[in-house]
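Each record in this resource describes a single protein on a pair of labelled lines. The shape at a given residue is found from the number at the same position. The record below illustrates this layout:

***
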Amino acid sequence: MKRIKMNVVQCYAPTNDSEEEDKDYFYNRLQKILEILPDKDIIILMGDFNTKIGPDNTGYEQVMGTHALGEMSENGERFVDLCALNNLVIGGSIFPHKRIHKSTWVSPAGMTENQIDHVCISKKFRRSLQDVRVRRGADAASDHHLVVARLKLKLKKNWIDASDRRVKYNVSLLKDHKTKEDFGLTLKNKFSVLQDQSEEEEDSVLNRWQKVRETLRSVCQEVLGIKKHQQKEWITAETLIKIEDRKKKKAAVNNSRTRAAKAKAQKEYAEAHRAVKRNIRKDKREYVDELAAEAEQAAYSGNMKQLYDTTKRLSGKFSKPERPVKDKQGKSITGIEQQMNRWAEHFEELLNRPAPPNPPDINPANEDLPINCDKPTRDEIRKAITMMKNRKAAGPDDIPAEALKADLDASVEMLYPLFEKIWEEEVIPVDWKEGYLIKIPKKGDLSNCANYRGITLLSVPRKVFNRVLLERMKDAVDPQL
């Protein structure tokens, strides 16, 4: 990621009646200063230049506009040539304003007004300059008025490599019964193809896992699609369908060739728009009522965790702003790569603590616990899938729990051969050993790594396998407690 600096040059130029030597010295010195500034940075040149440039920009179209006051003076020619040589744009000449919002200097007698104070910006960042005008009401205690420039920097976005971006599927569409049926049917069809390929190719844990993963991904991509960030979780599938219908109606309005066709299309679009608005209001009202009922039930039953989670969803998400972290010596780290290295160092120390010097002496049990060591059954896999929580982030394989729950029969039949092979070879896929480590801010100074807690996003199929093992161990351990 490139760093772009903003270089501000503030100056005061000799008047038009000054000696030529003084003018040459000033502009030569200013040119030397501008030459050493990198072209990739933002350069802002401003000050009292004692120059009038006028509205005639013939030959200087790339440097100035046609909204400046007065007529170009000798100093104005020097100033415009300097800007042209250094690719600077004179901001006060670009934006149309009333005369009182252009004149920057008023004579003591109040009879003469001129525009001699200017703000210039690099031509490369011309679009970042929103406005330049005079604020006559500012009490500056001077015969010059305050000149204000409004900037809105539009830097190039630092795009993330598509291979490193996490994929989130629009699992909210599974609330619609028809979409859920389509998902299950597509999954069964692709699974049947998967079974035919498995008979012809080498049978291993890695091959089985890759086929299961790619099958689930392709079905999610085909039926659900990628989740858009602006979509609200309370918008139902019915409303999404109406929104798509409204988009088609809008396209019909834009593509109409005759007035009659356009009037008809606009009428249909207006009706579709009203239908979308009605559905959105209905969805939002039902969503809030449902959460309020959940919060009331949680408070009545004394479930404080559910009450807190529901209240948080009702109030909305308010994320704390990111801050540059500090190293162990308390110095701020600004570089992206250095910050990543600091986080890696912090979590490595946190999660890999040395063993205690005096570990407790625990005697081995007299007999082994009666834990079932047979290969997992389909019923156990089904039970484990139903125990997975919804609305949880997926792991590195991008497979959400909702995708496995959409059609339990198909999901069980896909996972059963994989788990059976893992049980026989006593090897798990390499992907299951990886996870996304996410930092969650706590209270206190957020530039301190210690004020964050980490959570790891793991593969959902791996969680299903672990749940099968956990349930078996619980059945054997719980009676002993």
User: Anything to note?
Assistant: The chain has three domains: 6-151, 165-315, 336-352+371-480. The mean pLDDT is 85.
